[in-house]
Amino acid sequence: AGGAARVLLAALLGALPAAAERELRFRPPAEAPVRLFTEPELARYDGQQEGQPIYLAVKGVVFDVTSGKEFYGKGAPYNALVGKDSTRGVAKMSLDPADLTHDITGLTEEELKSLDDIFNNVYKAKYPIVGYTSRRILNEDGSPNLDFKPEDQPHFNIKDEF
Length: 162
What we know:
Elements (H helix, E strand, L loop, with lengths): L1 H14 L2 H8 L10 E2 L1 H5 L11 E4 L2 E4 L4 H4 L14 H6 L16 H18 L2 E5 H4 L25
Parallel strand pairs: 1-4
Antiparallel strand pairs: 2-3, 3-4
């Protein structure tokens, strides 16, 4: 019976087009894994190298802003924001190097509202999310932040990652 089953299986697989056979053998995960960026890793995507993606983090969410290269690329008006978490700069609409940080300490209610508006209506609406900063996923001691929820994967549970 085992030999007959193997012959039948071989006949069925032989009848499948190559693409269908590949699909049966490899199915990518339903959702891409969450990518964690350290500050040095994120700094590599600062728009200075031609052909390299350009990444910008806001609120710990890393966006691929390469399609906005005329705004974020080398020599472009907002290039100072890329390759780092520029949450404070986005909130204050500032390119001052002191504001190009994740730290939102001391921002006004108006600046926090502006940050949320730009985050949701510009970055999340326009650019793909490619990962998260380590500050967003991990606690200061390096342990997982159990409250972490990816912006683009509503069913994600960090407990599944460990």
